[in-house]
Design goal:
Blueprint (H helix, E strand, L loop, with lengths): L3 E3 L2 E2 L14 E2 L3 E3 L9 H22 L4 H28 L5 H23 L7 H28 L4
Antiparallel strand pairs: 1-4, 2-3
Helix pairs in contact: 1-2, 1-4, 2-3, 3-4
Amino acid sequence: MPYMVQKQVMTHQLQGEIIPPGEKRVMVPTISWTPEMSVDVALIDEQHKKLIEIINTLNSAIEENAATPVLDQVFDELTEYTRKHFSTEEELLVRAEYPQTVVHKEEHDGFIYQLIAFRNDFENGSEVVSTKIVEFLYGWLVKHILGSDKAYCASLHEKGIR
């Protein structure tokens, strides 16, 4: 299994839905970084851990029906840190002359576009920040790390980037 999950159970109101006393709803599980997710580049691994931490924070805020300012703050942090991480990663790929750098950057651009779209929909009131957003974020990040990011490891390591 590529990542650890921790099931969380809710027994209170969520997104306008009232969960009757005694009934439990299984929520989106949080994820934890595991050694299988390592790209064996310390800076990138640390940044991946931080991204997971921020998405877990967003998940918790949603589960707790956090006020809009809290969600705004977490979205800001996620967007800012994601851009920082992608920039760092792309600089290393260029330095390593990784042949799929352009394709990798396009994946990053698509993720940023989707993240901004979620944020805009939330701000315009057409989207409730919900578990479907967190599911997308977790799914994309884990798939990207285990697929696209793992693919560049050899190129970076050949150039002495660890």
